[in-house]
């Protein structure tokens, strides 16, 4: 497997990393807004680099406008902390798929949430392509 530093946004691993980041942000939002039923939708333009997102939308059931705006603002803040930018071009978009979370242990789910918290706090972020980093409190040589 390539080291994370070698992922320049053009390799297949860049797309995998993006789906893992989406999963982590979705789990982080689920913890922050446990009482709100919601779904995180993230879209990209076909022609932009992987670190550029077209749309970030949080769909909710029976949530107030204020809560919907807070959810979206927090999702954007989390993606920006993970190194993404939002720049819709008006061109065709596709929605990103999310990594499956149903088989994850609570320890791994917590590690995903902690990864987003670390990014927001400006700390070293574990490599999402290597789940062994998730169970370790020490930083890896592949951390970025």
Number of domains: 1
| Residue-averaged pLDDT | 80
Number of helices: 3
Element pattern in H and E: HEEEHEEH
The count of strands amounts to 5
Walk across the major sheet and give the strand order.
3-1-5
Separation of the first and last Cα atoms = 16 Å
Amount of helix = 25-40%
* Relative strand content: 5-15%
**What is the makeup of the main sheet?**
3 strands, antiparallel
Structural class: alpha+beta
Spatial shape: globular
- Give the C-alpha Rg: 15 Å
- List segments where confidence is low: pLDDT < 50 over at least 5 consecutive residues: 1-12, 132-144
Q: Could you characterize what this model shows?
A:
The longest helix is centred in the first third of the chain and has 21 residues, at 12-32. A three-stranded antiparallel sheet has the order 3-1-5. A two-stranded parallel ribbon has the order 2-4. Helices cover 38% and strands 15% of the residues. With 144 residues, the chain is of the alpha+beta class. The chain has helices spanning 12-32, 65-81, 106-121; strands at 38-45, 52-53, 55-60, 85-86, 93-95.
Note the topology.
Elements: H1 12-32, E1 38-45, E2 52-53, E3 55-60, H2 65-81, E4 85-86, E5 93-95, H3 106-121
List keywords for this structure.
144 residues; alpha+beta; 3-stranded antiparallel β-sheet; two-stranded parallel ribbon; 3 helices; 5 strands; globular; disordered N terminus
């Amino acid at each position: 497997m390539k080291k994370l530093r070698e992922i320049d946004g053009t390799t297949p691993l860049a797309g995998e990393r993006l789906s893992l980041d989406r999963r982590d942000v979705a789990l982080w939002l689920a913890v922050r807004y446990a009482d709100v039923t919601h779904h995180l939708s993230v879209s990209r333009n076909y022609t932009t680099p992987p670190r550029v997102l077209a749309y970030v939308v949080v769909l909710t059931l029976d949530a107030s406008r204020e809560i919907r705006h807070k959810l979206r603002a927090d999702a954007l803040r989390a993606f920006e902390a993970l190194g993404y930018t939002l720049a819709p071009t008006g061109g065709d978009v596709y929605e990103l798929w999310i990594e499956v979370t149903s088989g994850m242990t609570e320890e791994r789910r917590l590690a995903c949430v902690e990864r987003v918290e670390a990014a927001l706090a400006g700390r070293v972020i574990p490599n999402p392509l290597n789940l062994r980093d998730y169970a370790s409190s020490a930083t890896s040589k592949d951390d970025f």
